[in-house]
Write a structure and sequence with these properties.
Blueprint lengths: L1 H24 L19 H17 L5 E9 L2 E8 L6 H17 L5 E5 L2 H15 L8 H11 L3
Parallel strand pairs: 2-3
Antiparallel strand pairs: 1-2
Helix pairs in contact: 2-3
Protein name: Lipoprotein YhcN
InterPro entries: Spore_lipoprot_YhcN/YlaJ, Spore_lipoprot_YhcN/YlaJ-like
Keywords: Lipoprotein, Signal
């Protein structure tokens, strides 16, 4: 009987040790760490399309006599146009050129219904800054307040 009890105790101890060994060596299911998804840096398709349209208009506006440089920003169906004029342009010529720019923008891009044109160096610089930011992939929403303010300054009601 003593031998049977000893055998049982030894068997029980071995069974416990074996169970502990098996459970300790089992693979632990660790939840995978979530992978960080970084958004693409490219501009949305709509913004890219607006930039292409604006570039096309700006290039064609420099063919107008007296326009040295043109910068264009398109927002929905409106265009902000900043123009740098030749030094030979004086007085009423500026208004005539602005009128010609307005007509040409609408002729180049039929989706544009409103055109705000300025030859003021400060406004031209701000329009250039906005256009550069958009072409670098910054969201249009980042500039919406400034675009609205420029429209109000150029075209007061």
């Amino acid at each position: 009987m003593k031998f049977k009890n000893k055998n049982m105790i030894v068997s029980s101890v071995l069974l416990i040790l074996f169970s502990l060994n098996v459970s300790a060596c089992a693979n632990k299911n660790v939840a995978p760490t979530p992978t960080e998804i970084t958004p693409e840096k490219s501009a949305p398709l709509a913004v890219t399309d607006l930039s292409k349209r604006a570039d096309k208009i700006a290039k064609q506006l420099t063919t107008i006599k007296g326009v040295k440089v043109a910068n264009v920003v398109i927002s929905e169906d409106a265009a902000l146009v900043g123009i740098t004029l030749d030094k030979t342009v004086k007085g009423d010529m500026t208004n005539n050129i602005k009128s010609e720019v307005d007509k040409k923008v609408k002729a180049i891009d039929s989706k544009i219904k409103t055109v705000a044109v300025s030859a003021d160096p400060d406004i031209v610089q701000r329009i250039t800054h906005i256009g550069t930011g958009i072409s670098q992939g910054k969201p249009m929403s980042e500039f919406s307040a400034e675009i609205q303010e420029l429209f109000r300054r150029i075209m007061p009601k």
